[in-house]
Amino acid sequence: MTTTTEIAEFVIETEFDDLSGETVDELKKRVLDSIGIAVGAMGEDPVEAVRATVEEMNGEGCTLWGGGAASPPDATMLNTAYVRYLDYMDSFLAPGETPHPSDNIAAIIAAGEYEDSSGKDLLTAIGIAYEVQAELAWNAPVRDRGWDHVTHTVISATAGAAKLLGLGSEEIRSAIGIAGTAHNALRVTRTGGISEWKGIASANAARNGVYSAMLAKSGVEGPTNLFEGQKGWKQIVSGDFEVDFSPGERVHDVMTKKYVAETYAQSAVEGIIELAEGEDIDPEDVDSIHLDTFAGAKLIIGGGEGSRYEVETKAQADHSLPYMLAAALIDREMTNAQYDPERIQRDDVQELLRTVDVAEDDELTDRFETGEMPAIIEITMADGTTHRVEKDDFEGHPNNSMSWEQIETKFERMTEARYDHSRRERIVDTILQLENHDAADLVALLD
Residue 162: its pLDDT value, please? Predict the structure, then answer.
C-alpha cells in the first residue's frame, strides 16, 4: 500500500547522481520549453491580472519572470500561470488522466532561487516532481471521480519544493498532508462553459504546494497519513493504488506540444493541416468534417463534458475540437494567432466548426491506452469527394519526440518578440549547462 512515508522517502533519497544522462537531457528540454512558453504568454490579460494581484502583496524573495519580485508562493503563482496559460505546455499521457508536469517547474525554480540552490538541485527536484505527478496520474487517476488533475499537481509541487527547502522526513509528510488535505480541485473547471480559470488552476495548485512546504519547514504539523489515513486521500479522492517510483524516468513518457491546442487535439490538428496542404483544400468547398478519436478526447474536447460548439473565448476555443479543426483547416496552422478574439468570432470558422462531427471509437481508445494518440479525419467536399488521413501520433509525442534543436526552435519562436538574440542565446546555454549553474543564474535572465 502506497503511504505518505513512501513519497517522503523518495524525495529524501533521490539525488542528482541517480538521474541518468538521458533523463537529465529530457529535464533540461522541459525547462527550456516551459520558459519559452511562459515568455510567450506575457501580456495576456488573464495572466497579467494574476500579476496585478501578486504585485499588490508587495512580497519579496523571488523573481517574477518578466520583472519584479514576490514571495516564493506568489512568484510560483504568476510564473506557473505564464507557463500554463497558452495551453502549449507538456503533458503526461496516462490512460485515465493527462496532467501537465511542467506545471511544477516554476514552483521548483522559485523554491530553488529562495534557497540559493544549484542547477543540479533544480534538475533533481524537477525529476522528483515529474515522477510523483506521473505515478499518481498513472496509478491514481481522479478525473472520473470528479476531481481535476491539478489535485495531483499540488502534491508533486510540494514534493519538489520540499526537496529544495531541505525538509526532513516528518516535515515532508506534514507538507504533503497539508497540501493534499486542503487543496483538492473540482473537475468543474473543465466542464460545461469553460472560464479563464482553466488556464490558471494549476498555478494555484503549484502555489499551494510551495506554501505547504514552507509551512512545514516553519514547524506547522499536517496529517502525516494523508493517503492511508481514515477518510484520507485514498478513501475520498482516488481509491486504493500503488506507485513504483524511479529516479525521474517518467519524464521520457512526457509529450511536447507542437501546436497551441489541448493535448488530445495534437494528432488531429496535425492531420487536418496535412490534408489541407496536401490536397490544397478550399475551406469554402468543405461540406463536413468527421473525426474518429479516443474516449478521452471525446470526453474533454469533443462534447462529452458540455457543448464544444459555442466558442467565444480562448479558454473555450483551445478545448473545442470543432473549433481547432476548423481553424487549422482554414489557416493551416494552430498558433496564438488562432486564439485572437477577432479570429475566433469570424464567420468562416464559426460556420465551419458547426460541420465538425466528433465520434468516439473503441479501437482508437485501445490504441491510446497502449501508447498511441490516434486520429482518423475525413473531410467531405461539396461535390462529394472525400479526403482521409489517419494518424498514430504527432511530432512531439513520446513515440516521435522532439529533439533539443526542435524545442530550441519553438523557444526562439515564443521569445523573439521580447528578448534579443544575445539574451535568448544566454538562456539556452544556461539551461543546456544547468548542472554547472545555479538557480540565480537562470532567473537573472528572465526579467
Answer: 98
